Amino acid sequence: MIIVGADSGTSLLNERFQGDGPFVTCAVKVEAPYNTPCKVMYKKARKRRVIEGEIELALKLAREEGADEVHLDIPGGRLSRKK
């Protein structure tokens, strides 16, 4: 099985120890035994469109490599939950 996953990350923290914005979005292709990437794509993250960038990059890599599964680790903690 071929799996593609995508995520974004930051390494600089502000004075309140919060991430100072995403710096890179990365998509990775793995195959069994799933412990080493076979192919990696990355691009500069867009601060206001991080999730969109992850989806675009993951789908691009999945289409190019014929992935069986795509994994997106998207937290919902900051989504508005209107009652």
Offer a concise description of the structure.
The protein has 83 residues and is α+β, with helices and mostly antiparallel strands.
List descriptors.
alpha+beta; Ubiquitin-like (UB roll); 4-stranded mixed β-sheet; single chain; 83 residues; 34% strand
CATH class: Alpha Beta
Q: What is the mean predicted local confidence, pLDDT?
A: 83
Total domains: 1
Structural class: alpha+beta
Report strand %: 25-35%
Helix count, DSSP H or I runs of 4 or more residues: 1
What share of the residues lie within helices?
10-25%
- CATH topology title: Ubiquitin-like (UB roll)
Low-confidence stretches: none
The profile of the biggest β sheet is:
4 strands, mixed
Distance between the termini: 41 Å
Rg (C-alpha, Å): 14 Å
Shape: elongated
Oligomer: single chain
How is the largest sheet built, in terms of strand order? 3-2-1-4
**Do you know the CATH architecture?**
Roll
Query: How many strand units?
Result: 4
The secondary-structure element order is EEEHE
What does this protein structure show overall?
This protein has 83 residues and is an alpha+beta fold. The protein has a single domain (2-11, 19-72), classed as Ubiquitin-like (UB roll) (Roll). The protein has 1 helix and 4 strands. The protein has one helix at residues 50-65, and strands at residues 2-9, 24-31, 37-44, 69-72. It has a 4-stranded mixed sheet, with helices on one face. The radius of gyration is 14 Å and the shape is elongated. The N and C termini lie far apart (41 Å).
